[in-house]
Structure formats: C-alpha cells, structure tokens
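We close this part of the discussion by returning to an individual protein. Part of our work consisted of pairing the sequence of a single chain with a tokenised description of its backbone. The amino acid sequence and the backbone structure tokens for this protein are reproduced below.
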Amino acid sequence: MKMKSTPRSLITAALLLIVAATVGVAVRDEVRQRRTAPAQTAPSITVPTGQANAARPKLIVYYFHTATRCVSCLKIENLTQFTLESDFPSELVEGLIEWRPVNLDTPGNGHFAKEYGLYTKSVVLSEVRDGRETRWRNLEKVWHLLPDPEGFRRYVEEEVRSFRAVS
C-alpha cells in the first residue's frame, strides 16, 4: 500500500530531522565543553540605555538546565531555540529578544531556581526594562508538549507573542 505524503507530514518529518540533528550536535558540543571549558556564569542582564530602548523592553528567553541532561531536556532546549530562530529572527538580531540557556549547577546561578520557583528544567520569559526585570512567566507546558514538536513550537511562539503584546 502506497502512503500519500501531505504537506503537514512532510513539515513534521523535516522538523523531527532538524531536532534530531540538533540534539546530536548539542550532545557532542556539551561533551566537548565539559572536557575543556571551565564553569561559566550566565551573563549579567545589561540593556543599552537610550530613548529607543526605554520604549522597547527586551525579552530574555531563559532555558534553565542542570549539568545532567537527558534527551528530553536537550529536546526542550533545541525546540525552544528553533522556535525563536524561526519565528522571531529579526527580534533576535535587533536584540529585542535574547536566547539565554543557563546551567543552574554553575556557581552563581543557583539563585535563579529560588527566584523563579524552579523544580525542573524550565523555559522562562523575562521582560527587562532599563536593565531591570519587570515581570516573568514560566512556560510550564513545555514538558507536556514534548511528544508533539509542532504543538510545542506553537505554544512557545504564542506565549512569546502574548507576553510581548502586554508590554
């Protein structure tokens, strides 16, 4: 029996291939980094001052993880990054959205878990105005949507858009 390919199934297959390749590269890079790089803290939040930036807040999309990373953890990171790069490329280039993975096991980063009430690996949206965080949101559904990459992507994209619309 011959199966008919639909555009949706082709897109899903392409996304899964991209995610699989990205996970492979991420695992390889993580192994290399652990072997060669000293622990680093997350960069401090700095927003250039000026009229244009004061009117336009910055959105930091954090992915909080630990040094121990499973396939699901890497998938959350890769799908979130893929969504941002696909749906918000100009905002990333302009600095209106920043992608920031943070290892909570790195000395100096533990405060994030307390501040955001984290109990597992998480994606958190943080609005920054004039160098100060004004509000944040934990995207708690990312774990439930892992089996559905397209649903995951839609969820993150909609949450980012709705979070930015309130500004």
In short: Residues 64 and 102 are 5 Å apart (CA to CA).
